[in-house]
Amino acid sequence: MNMGAWIAIFLVGFAALWVAISYVLSFVGGWRTLAEHYRAPEDITTERNWRFQSGIMSGIMRYNGALSIGTNRTGMRLSMLFLFPGHPTLFIPWSDVTVTAQKRLFVMLTVFQFARAPEATLALRERVAREVLRPFDGTP
Predict the structure, then answer these.
(1) Do 114 and 92 form a contact (C-beta atoms < 8 A)?
(2) Which CATH architecture has domain 29-133?
(3) What are phi and psi of 41, to 5 degrees?
(4) pTM of the predicted model, to two decimals?
(5) Is 93 in contact with 75 (CB distance < 8 Å)?
């Protein structure tokens, strides 16, 4: 085989491995569990948006700089960068969200729990969570 064929095989193999790992991580972290209950409708719009955020799913899966969070008066949208297949966009109604504070080492985290999937949690840094949870009072 020539060099071009080897490069093509490597690229296809790498892409397949990336997709497989992304799907496995979505199961391990609980994203797929949330998707069973909270898959977002296609037409969901949010009033406030934070891109390239970091969070910890179910206490084990770190999404560093790959998480997008959006909110509106009825709930919270969670999505991942397009580079991570297997993570469908979620929309969780506020009525299904409970929040607790947790200190991990020297960092204060806010942990979001979800009524229909209590085993899947999302932990955000306190500063980000405070913005996400800020009431809709007419200010952008």
Answers:
(1) yes
(2) Roll (2.30)
(3) -70, 155
(4) 0.88
(5) yes
